[in-house]
Description:
By secondary structure, the protein is an alpha+beta fold. It has a single domain, classed as Nucleoside Triphosphate Pyrophosphohydrolase (Alpha-Beta Complex). The chain contains three helices and eight strands; from the N terminus they run βββββαββαβα. It has helices spanning 76-83, 119-124, 140-154; strands spanning 2-3, 6-7, 28-34, 41-46, 52-53, 90-92, 108-112, 127-130. The strands form two sheets. Strands 3, 4, 5, 6, 7 and 8 form a six-stranded mixed β-sheet that branches. Strand 3 (28-34) and strand 4 form a beta hairpin. The radius of gyration is 14 Å and the shape is globular. It starts with a strand and ends with a helix. The relative contact order is 0.24.
Amino acid sequence: MQGRRGPVSVRGDAVLGDPPGGGAGGWRGVLYHKHPTSARTVFLRIGDEVVVSAPDDAVDAGPHEGRIHIHPASGLPYLAALLDVPPSALRVDGEALPAAAEAADPVWLVELVASDPPAAAAAAAGGCFVSLMEARFLDDTQRTLLGAAYTRILG
């Protein structure tokens, strides 16, 4: 798939495990869009996952021996390219999600700040935007994570 800055690979992620195909320490996030008028909230789902992982090379911090943590915003350029939106259309929403506290790496909540979610770009990446009700078929861990996200989003 081609994004604004070149080829983009798409992969989902186990919510509380290590990212597939890469070591621990990569950036992971749940992307959502809340409509400015109706407050209808949808989440990006790619395949059977709502947690999107940026490839390790997209957020490489170099050798750090555990002293440096991945910055919450380091995966935003990857998500922007994936959804063909400018990086300024994305923002990290607070601290890591509490439902992922047991995970070795945090899972960040990312808001898509736009009037409408880019459905065509999501479809081109093999994904779609789903409501919380449409996510009821995900596994328990992901539903718990989305519940924590939804509680934070709507207060």
